[in-house]
Design goal:
This protein is 52% helix and 8% strand. It is of the alpha+beta class and 263 residues long. It folds into two domains: 91 residues, Glutaredoxin (3-Layer(aba) Sandwich), CATH 3.40.30.10; 160 residues, Glutathione S-transferase Yfyf (Class Pi), Chain A, domain 2. Strands 4-3-1-2-5 form a five-stranded mixed sheet, with helices on both faces. The radius of gyration is 18 Å and the shape is globular. The structure holds glutathione. Glutathione binds next to helix 1 and helix 3.
Length: 263
């Protein structure tokens, strides 16, 4: 069976989970423990980031390479168009989603965590005792801003990221006014990349992800909580309803990578 080494909270992993579900491929999630689990991931794949797909003796790192592998190895329900113009547009949009939406969403989320106490406690795993959650909740948001600055994500960088995301979502709303999917009449890699990488912008509702209920429908303030981008999120909700499978039970996330059967 296919194995997906992942973080449940990874938006690049979500792109691959959407593709696996669309293609109807059964897979086992292997939740990687940040830090220690990434050492084992390095031994497996030669790098430390998720997602990594293991298919028998094949090990593929990077969501773009995984999507390409899956479409070649499992060609039913293709996600990369064969028409040259559509293919070019699809691959460009995937690249743009990975680089623009993916990176800006991460920065934007850090900004929202810093400024919203309830949000930052909700992001902690369920296994964290309430006493620690309360401590994290009590950290003043200035300190989060300071921590962000230390890793190159000061308030200006967060503001720029949120502005870029608004431009991205505006562009997507224009395209979706004209057609049901981003490249045309059928779903492609572009749709799954955009849907997956907007996970932090607004966490999907429903039972697709093993995340706290209090996070669902929430996201980057000034984007997730205003009506302007509703056409985009309505489109994404439909994509989830049509193609994403529900996650039947909670994943455990302690120790080294743990095999979790989801079929
Ligand atoms: N270009 C990569 C990006 C993957 C990525 O950024 N993964 C993050 C999680 S969302 C990660 O593994 N971070 C841990 C680290 O960098 O140590 C892809 O498309 O798969």
């Amino acid at each position: 069976m296919l194995e997906l080494y992942q973080f449940e909270m990874s938006h690049y992993a979500e792109k691959i989970r959407l593709i696996l579900d669309y293609k109807g491929l059964d897979y086992r999630k292997v939740e990687v423990t940040p830090g220690v689990g990434q050492i084992e991931l390095y031994q497996l794949s030669g790098q430390r980031q998720v997602p990594v797909l293991k298919d028998g003796s094949e090990v593929i790192a990077d969501s773009t390479a995984i999507a390409d592998y899956l479409d070649k190895r499992y060609p039913d329900k293709p996600i990369i168009p064969s028409d040259p113009k559509q293919k070019g547009l699809c691959l460009l949009m995937e690249q743009w989603a990975d680089e623009s939406i993916g990176l800006n969403a991460r920065k934007g989320l850090i900004g929202s965590i810093g400024s919203n106490q309830a949000f930052r406690t909700a992001l902690l795993p369920n296994s964290v005792p309430d006493v620690f959650k309360n401590l994290v909740g009590a950290i003043p948001h200035e300190l989060f801003g300071f921590l962000g600055m230390g890793i190159g994500m000061g308030p200006e960088a967060v503001k720029d990221a949120q502005a870029a995301l608004k431009r991205d979502l505006t562009a997507l709303c224009f395209i979706l006014r004209e057609q049901p999917y981003l490249i045309g009449d059928t779903p492609t890699l572009a749709d799954f990349a955009v849907a997956g990488l907007t996970m932090y912008v607004k966490f999907p509702t429903g039972s697709y992800l093993n995340i706290p209920e209090s996070l669902k429908g929430k996201g980057i303030s000034g984007i997730a909580d205003i009506g302007t981008f509703e056409p985009f999120f309505t489109w994404r909700d439909k994509l989830y309803a049509d193609f994403r499978k529900s996650s039947p039970f909670a994943a455990s996330v302690s120790g080294s990578p743990t095999s979790i059967d989801i079929d």
